[in-house]
Amino acid sequence: MIPFIILGMPRTGSTFLAASLAQNQDIKVFGEIFHPLESERKNSHYVSKDLNGNTIYYPGGYYDAIKFLYNYIWNDENSKYKAVGFKLFAQRVECKGTEKLFWRLKEEIKDLHIICIERKNLLDVFVSIKKAEQSKIWTIYRHEVDKLETYRKSITPIKVEPEVLKNFFYSYKEVYRFYSDFFKDLPFIKVFYENLVNDLEEFRKIFDFLGVEPIEVDPVLVKQNVQPHEEFILNFKELKAYFQGTEYEVFFNRERGAKQLFQMSTMKNEFIIKGYTFIDASNIPWDQRPKTSTNKIVVLKPYNMLMWYKNFFNSKNVLNIMELGIAEGGSAIALSLLLNPKKFVTVDIKPEDQNIRDLIKNLGLQDKIKLYFNTSQSDAAKISKIIKDEFSNELIDLVIDDASHLFEQSLASFEIIFPYLKPGKFYVIEDWGWLHNLRLRHYKPAKEGHPSLTQLAFLLIMAFASDPKLINKIIFVNPSLLVVQKGEKEVNPESFSLRDYIKINNFDCIPFLSDNFRKYLKMI
After folding, report:
1. CATH fold label, 289-521
2. pTM of the shown model
3. Which of the two ends of the chain, N or C, has the fewest CB atoms closer than 10 A to its terminal CB?
4. Residue 83, strand partner residues
5. Tens digits of per-residue pLDDT, 196-220?
6. How far apart are CA 524 and CA 85, in angstroms?
7. Residue whose C-alpha is closest to residue 399's, from 452, 357, 346
């Protein structure tokens, strides 16, 4: 177990960081266990409970702080985690029993890792503190978005004395200088809040630092402070002039709220990509799902899946993308914004939808995204013609099958399109594990007894084992995502059949196969 501390100051993103790290099953995060107020220690954002359901918090008094950490935080019960830590702010270590805590942590805790989170713009921090003090609301989680209206209604513009603000800036700078100097001999990583919200790939560095496998982080907090500072601070221009020519000038000059790549909206099922709001309808029943319009982007991929696409493919130079399944058009738009391909071709069996075409035109993406409605994913002649027309002599870098999720149709699509995939590039099959997800037991294919995509996954495994030059790698990301990386072998698109590449020495060695599946394989 790696012991770690999240060092920060109020309103610098420590709660956002802790909430994100806590999503990793190999990490356990506690809150501000040494906050001077017992009520805050008990109700900290990340208070954890022991196996008996008792809340873990520092009782204060004469209980030695280091002894408490070993008994309740870095103990045998938590040794199943690879990293365990808590939040700590320098100006809030005032409990009895915490005397010389920083010195003792440094000297007595073996292999202590320090994560220091800072915010680049300290004016943002100051304003955030003042608004939280006025509203008495310090954090809003996605499931608490109703608080947002209360928060905003409680905000009243203020006038700030220049010297007060100057002292604030100085005190924060001094604390972070202390952190860097005092812990310089320990494993230490500094992260900036602005970098984390602009590119969640930044979390990979922290996961690597803590020695755990990286995950796709799903931000759970709603951004509260969106009002321009000029509207909240009555004498903003006076302050800007006062700090001109000082090291703090930059806090007033740069544009606030630089566009975030990902940002949670104020609605539970919304998120923002590069300034565009998407409605996540992935968990809404089919008959209740909203429709895309010229001012509303509906997407059926959840936020964390889009994050996975961004993280996995952003560095893999996927210029030509083909997706099976247009649905409401949100996937093509989101992935085009995230991956910036040269061309994104997508097909669907659904009838023509002019709203989706108009929306893509309004977004200026009509030259990048090409839509083909009334097209079955298993129509070999039509799919092949689309590929030749759209990609000319170029091969495809990424194929995404998010269409029927049925075995026969998905196998047909694979056999049609895989030959047009560039060697070393990727074919993704979504929702391949629907048969085994109890949450999807009412899914129409499951209720009607359609052959599942598990069979396609098994075929791909057998083809990989039989001929690694055909399939270089198979990655089972999770029950919703399966990735096939094409090998170096050239295949003929006119005659490619997956079963031609599967070798089986003895069918008796796989007795669990269904009769239909066995019949398919015996045609080998």
Report:
1. Rossmann fold (3.40.50)
2. 0.57
3. C
4. 2, 27
5. 877 666 788 999 999 998 887 777 6
6. 56
7. 346
